[in-house]
Queue: 2 jobs
Job 1
Amino acid sequence: MERDYAAEIDALQQQMAEVKDTLTKYLPCITKADTIENLAQLASGQNAPNPTVGHVEKMGNMHPHPEISAILSDLEDSCGQSGSSGRITYIGVFASGGRQSTWVKNDLNTDGLLSLIENRTAEKMLACIGSNDRLNMLLAILRKPRTVAELVSDCGFSSTGQVYHHLKPLLMADLVIEDKKQRGSYIIQPHRVQGVIMLLAGIADLVDTTYTQGAF
């Protein structure tokens, strides 16, 4: 029986058209100008560009946990659709000294974070805590409530006057408060705990050399 090559070619073209229609639904990067060769490469995963949402390129397979990958995908969509500089989500728990802080912030617009530099809020806050004595004091109080006398001995101060000198700006910034349950003891303001921990997480990223070269 003689083969009908024309009919076979027509059938093959129809199949390729159906494949292209299917791929177009799931890969927005495909256009009508794509050739059969390009489609074959995309189907095999070769040279396949990442889809985009607005100005944001979607990055797949960033994390092995599917639920975390889904959260990232939502953030990429939110960022691209809103036109913002970025969106972030963070969650955490810190438990020490018989106290616990648990927090969730979702789809936070980074434009607001960048404005903290422009309006000098970041400068003022970092200046408030930006000394080794105050950082050591914050660390001690994070671990458990401390009295002034305990801060003198635990942080290496020579007098209570030194403690009060460094404690005052922390109190004024509402980072540290007197514990209502233990008069005379000081604690980190409960809703500020996550800020201190996330600041340290940010510093850890700044000094992480995993993906950088050179010395800090």
Job 2
Amino acid sequence: MAKYIVTGSAGFIGFHLCLRLLKEGHRVIGIDNMTSYYDVRMKEKRNELLLSYPSFQFEQIDFGNFDSLFQLINASKPKVIIHLGAQAGVRYSLENPWAYEQSNNLGTLNIFEAAKRSGVQNVLFASSSSVYGANTKTPFSEEDPVTQPISLYAATKRANELLAYTYHHLYGMQTAGFRFFTVYGIYGRPDMALFKFAKNMLLGKEITVYNNGDMKRDFTFVDDIVDGLVRAISAIEKGKIKYEIYNLGGDSPVKLLDFIAELEKTLNCKAKMKFLPLQMGDVQETVADVSKARAQLGFDPKTRIPEGIKIFSEWFLENKDWLLELDDPKQ
């Protein structure tokens, strides 16, 4: 039984990764500061489910606080740190840039420095497809230049990639970053499109559709993301990863209006759409080239949009009593 630290354990992807590792019999130490960027009741619900496993330990720590973070990592000596915690959201970064500097940049520096001082050599971390900026070449490849981010959130994620390489170069740390492409699924973030669409549709409210609906996203079901991360954990433990960046995407981009139509079908209600221009920091299209992750990790996203939205919708309808009561995110 291996021991892992997962930051952002009460977050969307972190929760699902912890759940998978716990079900496989591992010991997991989860770190989360339970920030109120979106309704903390969602994070509390995820955390409650994780705490039902005796092999899960939760620590409410802000990884912007180096001393607390170092003490935990140094005492626990995990086999791998999976750093998924971050201040999320592209649009919110326009309103509160300091939150991103504190959490994403300082927090990630603290993770790598605490790992180095504790003798932990394996660190995986979350990047984002937003680092590709307004790249018009599709699909997006890890070999594409990513020197012109168009949001502060994207800039912090690219900075994380560069920081990771520096720690690899200076101290021989084994590390890999993952550029996630529009992750969705059960217990998803309330600030993401699918959750907001479902909530407003069931309440009979308008949903906001940017760029007049002329958008395409490489939506990725969370179970596929977790499978990619678990494969990377195995690879880094075997010494097969030195420093790498991987795209993890659904490998099947879909038009936003088609995505909404699928949700209408599974929720059995019609969307009232309010069309608006493209927002600052947003991009019109994301398409992932996952050939590197497929070749090196065996990554193979299997969940197609109709299946994924059906799973999400059934979960949402079963839990709508508390989901519809959640406060809207800060953006």
